[in-house]
Amino acid sequence: MLLKKYLGPLNKENPILVQVLGVCSALAVTAQVKPAVVMGISVAVVCGFSNLILSLLRNTIPQRVRIIVQLVIVAALVIIVDQFLKAYFYDISKMLSVFVSLIITNCIVMGRIEAFALSHKPIPSFIDGLANGIGYGLVLLIVSFFRELLGSGTLWNHQVIPQSFYSNGYLNNGLMVLPPMALIIIGVIIWIQRSIHKELQEE
Amino acid sequence: MSRIEKTSEKLTRKFKTNKGLSHFYALFDAIDKFLLTPDSTTIRGSHIRDSVDVKRLMTTVMIALTPSLFFGFWNTGYQHFLSYGIQAAFWKCFGFGFLKWLPIVLVTYISGLAVEVFFAQIRKEEVAEGFFVTGMLIPMILPPEIPLWTVAVATIFATLFAKEVFGGTGYNFLNPALVARAFIFFAFPSVISGDSIWIADKADAFTGATPLADVALGNISSLPSIKDMFLGTIPGCLGETSTLAILIGAALLIVTNVASWRIILSVIIGGLAAGFTFNLIGTTPAMSIPPYYHLLMGGFMFGAVFMATDPVTSPHTNSGKLIYGLLIGILTVVIRVCNKGYAEGMMLSILLMNVFTPLIDYLSIQRNINKRVSRWNSAKSNKNSR
Q1: Do the chains contact at A169 and B183, CB–CB below 8 Å?
Q2: Fewer CB atoms inside 10 A, N or C side of chain A?
Q3: A174, B150: Cβ pair inside 8 Å?
Q4: Counting beta carbons within 10 angstroms of the beta carbon of residue B308, is it exposed (0 to 12), middle (13 to 18) or buried (19 or more)?
């Protein structure tokens, strides 16, 4: 039961598919699998630790200034992640460009702090943040899988579609590399998810 | 009752009741309705104004398309033989073009109708007639050498995401035929742009650039003559080259009231106005071509007559139609002249205005309401003061 509650963000309470948060970055960084996975991990780390820290501080933060305190902590975590990527994964950090720093504006992070961390104990908050980040990363992984496979013919920068396809007239789908197609893929995922779980369908 | 009708009735019962066959009821029903007149009638309070129904409308559009289509057959062959320097006979050209067109149209119909039938079966609805015209339009706005699998992918994409997702025929807000073309245009740009794809099996030495490509590159001097462009003996998509053939179709559509003359006319006026304005600026070679050239080049007339007038995706109010048409014309010429990347602006500007159609309709209805409210108020105050 407890486990089910924490695994909610992976499917029925997915931040992108059900709550429709963080869609902007999901469209921007999913042209290839590699940056999408790194982005998913980054968001999970930021979301988990910001939830943990703010849950520890939740009784000492005055209600009126809580947003500013949250921002400072999230910003500090984002900068740490950004610097870490720049130091160890320079090419990916180049690819992700501003979208790592923009994790601070990702609605999932602030949303989980407000909705969960400020009213729950540290360990559950940490798990909740992590789970939401992973739920976000999971959608990124699915979207980027199709976009990279059909758009560039590669996966994790390795050629997957054999050369014989190309010499027989197969072409990479250029639309997959453009953000509109990411929106359509997310739409299709939502479509499939709601046909399986009918209780998620809106009136 | 003739024997055919009896068989149809028997089969209908069989398809409705039989467990295995009922999966294919939508498909059977579509074929049955296409071949025979449906026997279902309104039970009480008939609402028929005249005999023009969706089927009749679609048939009229099909007939209006035939001049452009037949000319397209001939022109495809003519351009092919011309690139080799051969003067081929009429029927040889015609046959060559027909054989180029046939596989494209078959692929379009099979892939599009497969999606339609699939959704009709899931929703337990009948297959609507809407796809018949769309399937005819798609091959006409594609180059003759298009790879068939891209046509299939684009048709499935367009039918699925531009039409069925929104509820099928009559509920789409984008023109499905143009969505199919836009999909190919963005997804596989190499098969639908450039200089080498507009003539089927072209000789390598022949350039084969379309007039629009010449304009985009600034080669105004190499544009074909006005007569060639008007008659349509120029390279281009299968059905779009001949302005004359399109005008014959347009006349039929306007006389039968199937297409709105307001839209066609305002698209033309918008294009001419934008072309004229660019002439006044006149800093680049593309800006200084005569405004009426824009009407003759590329898909301008085809778009104005057959695409912009789609009754589902164009405004319903008369003033809205004028605004919609004018903006399509203006945007097309602006894209053609200013954007070197997209030689043809017709497709993108119609799709953009399709998106704005509900807004245009809302505004013109709102304007009308406000006008009547103020008229009523002033009448009331006049009465009071008297």
Answers
A1: no
A2: C
A3: no
A4: buried
First to last CA, chain B: 72
Amino acid identity at B32 = D
* B356 CB-near residues (< 8 Å, 6+ apart): B324, B327
> Chain A residues with CB inside 8 Å of B188's CB?
171, 173-174
pLDDT, tens only, B155-193: 999 999 999 888 887 888 899 999 999 999 999 988 887
* Best CA proximity match to B168, nearest among B211, B207, B129, B219: B129
Q: Measured between CB atoms, does A168 come within 8 Å of chain B?
A: no
User: Minimal Cα–Cα distance from A171 to chain B, Å?
Assistant: 7
Please check the confidence at residue A1 and state whether its pLDDT lies above 60. Answer: no
B160 part of contact set with chain A, CB < 8 Å: no
| pTM for the full predicted model | 0.87
Domain boundaries, chain A: 25-195
Rounded Cα–Cα distance for residues B330 and B347 (Å)? 13
Query: What's the pLDDT score for residue B357?
Result: 94
> What ipTM is given for this predicted complex?
0.88
Which among B79, B65, B22, B379 has a CA at the least distance from the CA of B199?
Answer: B79
> How near does any CA of chain A get to the CA of B117, in Å?
19
Mean pLDDT of chain B: 86
**A178 touching chain B per CB within 8 A:** yes
